[in-house]
């Protein structure tokens, strides 16, 4: 198992290289049915995202209209103005999703929490496999038309805010992440299949630039209609 984790991390640029950086930023275009379903179709349609690599933090700017930005951490989420003054904040934000289903609308602060949590997870993967307390177990390979993908079940500790405690990662023969399955706990444990494509290399680190998320069925299959979320990244910067 350690050998598989090491192979995967090395394929994406290596842990030594990754640890030279403090954060990653990217221009972000998002679409899909989720945002309208939650009552906030345009807030994060086109923005910039920045996430921490050594601490769990994220920010989207702009965050909707008015030159605002979001601040996400597991225990607090806030919306600030351009000067950094806090306009709204929510402590222990995950608790605010109690009883939610996929159809439950979100407040802007809840959107800031979900988007921050999600993009922090995505942009730090697969290097999160080396974080303290993260446990992995190799599963049976997943057959596809071009050959099997190797799979890892990942269990996150309670201090990491992410989609679900247990997630599944799929890797191709080169060790690159190709698919990411999870159940969105804060949205009624909605199951998702997250397809990952179009890698680019930035300062020695490989990042996918195209992500598409679909509804996952109990047998692991998925259809492409509806498209739940689309994520396209460009101008990726490490610093």
Describe this structure in words.
- Helices cover 15% and strands 45% of the residues.
- The protein starts with a helix and ends with a strand.
- It has a single domain (2-238), classed as outer membrane lipoprotein receptor (LolB), chain A (Clam), CATH 2.50.20.
- Strands 3-2-1-13-12-11-10-9-8-7 form a 10-stranded antiparallel sheet. A 3-stranded antiparallel sheet has the order 4-5-6, with helices on one face.
- It has 4 helices and 13 strands.
- The longest helix has 17 residues, at 108-124.
- It is mainly β.
- It has helices at 2-11, 15-18, 34-37, 108-124, and strands spanning 23-31, 46-52, 58-61, 69-73, 76-80, 86-91, 135-142, 149-155, 166-171, 177-184, 190-202, 205-216, 222-238.
Task: Please outline the helices and strands.
Blueprint: H1 2-11, H2 15-18, E1 23-31, H3 34-37, E2 46-52, E3 58-61, E4 69-73, E5 76-80, E6 86-91, H4 108-124, E7 135-142, E8 149-155, E9 166-171, E10 177-184, E11 190-202, E12 205-216, E13 222-238
Please state how the strands of the largest beta sheet are arranged side by side: 3-2-1-13-12-11-10-9-8-7
Number of strands: 13
Structural class based on helices, strands and sheet pairing = mainly beta
Name of the top-level CATH class: Mainly Beta
Give the termini separation.
31 Å
Content of β-strand: 35-45%
CATH level-3 fold name: outer membrane lipoprotein receptor (LolB), chain A
CATH architectural designation: Clam
Radius of gyration: 17 Å
Describe the global form: globular
Mean pLDDT reading: 96
Kindly state the percentage of residues in helix.
10-25%
Given as residue ranges, the uncertain stretches (5+ residues, pLDDT < 50) are none
Tell me the series of helices and strands, N- to C-terminal: HHEHEEEEEHEEEEEEE
The structural domain count equals: 1
The major β-sheet equals: 10 strands, antiparallel
